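User: Please predict the structure of the protein below. I'd like the answer in structure-token form so I can feed it into my own downstream comparison script.

Assistant: Understood. Taking the following sequence of 174 residues as input:
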Amino acid sequence: MDRADKIYLIGFMGSGKSTAGKKLAAGLGWDFIDLDKRIEKETGLTIPEVFSRYGEQYFRETETRLLRELKPVSRTVVSTGGGAPCSGDNMDFMLGTGLTIYLKLTAEQLSVRLSGSKGERPLIKNISKEKLPEFISEKLSEREKYYNRAEITVDGTYNDFVSIISLVKKHLNC
């Protein structure tokens, strides 16, 4: 299997990884996997229920195991959870088994996107709307050292998927 036959989309929650992943996969004629959906299918629970019932550590362990199980998968775009690259050696694993793309947004842009979906996102559900920008800014600054290791960084507000697909094809030499 060639390292160039899998693409991992990384970035903070709300950066559009699932939406971009579906479009990128369709444009390449590849399959699409949403890692959070895999976790939900395996556990029979929503992500908030997994966090509530078993905690973040169990979630991260399950996420890491399911990520590793994707190693033999080919011609696939994988949308990861926002914390996946920051857990254990997941970023090294992704860099070694596929092309990594960081969908980058500012803390302010993420705050606007996430303010309406707090109940669906365990890490921010108990944070007030007033405190959300500060929390996102702090968490983003912790995670960017991982995100910035991606081979390609794309502005998360950029919706020209034809250009993004062209950039990816150029990078993959296809």
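That's the full token string. The chain has a mean pLDDT of 89.
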